[in-house]
TrEMBL record:
It comes from Acanthamoeba castellanii (strain ATCC 30010 / Neff). PANTHER family: UPF0276 PROTEIN HI_1600. Residues 294-341, 411-457 are annotated as: Disordered. This is Uncharacterized protein. Residues 411-420 have a biased composition (Basic and acidic residues). It comes from the Eukaryota. Residues 294-308 have a biased composition (Low complexity). InterPro entries: MbnB/TglH/ChrH. It holds the Pfam family MbnB_TglH_ChrH.
Length: 457
């Protein structure tokens, strides 16, 4: 397995530790169709200290080949008040990165916890200078924990509290990631993007461009969710994103393991993967043909014309390098200081969670948002809330947010290790374990893409 990408972007899967997921992807592995793997690191930390041996084998194999990409779900990188559990999360990330090599590590944009919440789901927040500083500080700490050489980044949200909030998300992400220079990664979740396109009647092309798709080579990744991939995502959004983001590194299909309940589900996962692979390969072939034609045309140009083009290109590289060096110089100094906090935003986030865990109607929630003093500094943001979005946020918060002492969160994480014995009994034991954990499926499969500059490759 080679790390080079001469054939275009890699096409991979997000690895799930469920035995039914293993059976579903095994034919793809046997045919050497899976180029890369995404792994949700912190999910593994909570598996009772034991990862199935087959999972460890795949992580090690793809990690050695430079084709392993990390993702997190529990860091909450824009929680405005620093939490002990975030420090614990970084310690676990550091250990994970000492054990295996990742091409990138990303997290969900938004805040999950505040005011003593133990766990939650990613939620939007107002785009303010303080919020940007929080995001930059948290990603820099994540970058250092990952070893200082692994790019880190954020994934766009499906939920926005209204049209203005949706419009702000792209500039918000860009404002945070540009401060990390070439170590900042944008994870564009295609299914999340699709949700906003439908909910707010957006143009697909404008939505992708607004999310800071960088033709100059910012690392990039795309995503969709936990059932079959909606056809319009593969047939429309994927080709559009391939065209608008010319330096793609890897496309990843993600589907939660517990949603594969039958052989028919497994077959549809394989079909989705092969369709995605076909779209990516066809696009890469067309690009190579276009590049060959362009090279032939360039051969007819004068030597002076070529020299001018090369000089302009080098000037652009030098300017980018200087900016990145300047930014990195303040990175370590900032990390030696206490974590940046925005107390006003922290009060907003804590009050938001305390309010939305209550069983109130969307109209009652909107009234409280306009009446409670913690929300007063952000009234312009709150005034843009759509009643339907408030209803969805209420459902999500009441389902996922739990309050407990921070120490309890850290105690749930145990050191992952392979199960070295009882390989034959492993699947039977896992079937029993995961049968208890199976929940309701989601509303769409996942399709992820990373983009890197030529220098990164």
């Amino acid at each position: 397995m080679e790390a080079e990408q001469a054939g275009g972007p890699w096409v991979g899967v997000s690895l799930m530790p469920h035995p039914q997921y293993r059976r579903a992807i095994q034919p793809l592995l046997d045919q050497h169709l899976i180029d890369a793997i995404e792994w949700s690191c912190d999910i593994g930390w909570g598996m009772g200290g034991r990862l199935p041996a087959w999972v460890v084998d795949l992580l090690d194999q793809f990690g050695r080949a430079g084709r392993l990409f990390g993702h997190g779900v529990m860091y909450s990188p824009t929680s405005a008040i620093w939490e002990r559990r975030q420090a614990a999360w970084l310690r676990w990330l550091e250990r994970e990165c000492e054990e295996r090599r990742f091409g990138h590590i990303t997290e969900h944009f938004g805040f999950m916890t505040a005011g003593g919440a133990l766990e939650g789901c990613p939620l939007p927040l107002p785009f303010t200078p303080g919020a940007v500083e929080v995001g930059v500080d948290r990603l820099r700490r994540m970058h250092r924990a990952a070893g200082g050489a692994t790019p880190v980044g954020l994934e766009n949200l499906a939920l926005a509290m209204g049209p203005a909030d949706a419009a702000d998300q792209g500039p918000f992400l860009a404002a945070v990631l540009e401060r990390l220079g070439d170590q900042g990664v944008l994870l564009l979740d295609l299914h999340n993007l699709h949700c906003q396109i439908v909910n707010f009647s957006l143009s697909a092309q404008d939505a992708i461009k607004r999310l800071a798709c960088d033709p100059e080579g910012r690392p990039f990744r795309r995503d969709t969710h936990d059932g079959d991939v909606p056809p319009e995502i593969i047939d429309e959004l994927l080709p559009l994103a391939l065209r608008l983001c010319p330096n793609l590194r890897v496309v990843v299909l993600e589907r939660l393991g517990e949603t594969i309940r039958s052989e028919a589900d497994a077959e549809r996962l394989r079909e989705d993967f092969c369709r995605i692979r076909s779209v990516v390969r066809d696009f890469a072939s067309a690009q190579r043909a276009q590049s060959t034609a362009g090279a032939a045309a360039a051969a007819d140009e004068s030597a002076g014309g070529r020299a001018t083009a090369e000089a302009d290109h080098h000037n652009n590289i030098n300017a980018t390098t200087a900016t990145d060096d300047d930014d990195g110089g303040g990175d370590e100094a900032a990390l030696e200081s206490p974590p940046f906090e925005d107390e006003e935003l922290g009060r907003y986030q804590a009050a938001f969670l305390r309010l939305f865990v209550r069983d109130l109607s969307p109209e009652q929630l909107l009234h409280q948002l306009r009446a409670q003093p913690e929300f007063a500094p952000f009234q312009k943001y709150v005034e843009g809330f759509d009643v339907r979005c408030v209803e969805v946020a209420s459902v999500l918060v009441r389902k996922w947010v739990r309050f407990a002492r921070p120490k309890a969160y850290e105690s749930r994480w145990r050191r992952p290790r392979p199960d070295s014995e009882g390989e034959e009994d492993e699947e039977e034991e896992e079937e029993e374990e995961y049968a208890e954990e199976d929940g309701e499926g989601g509303d769409g499969g996942e399709c992820d893409v990373y983009e890197s500059s030529e220098a990164d490759e």
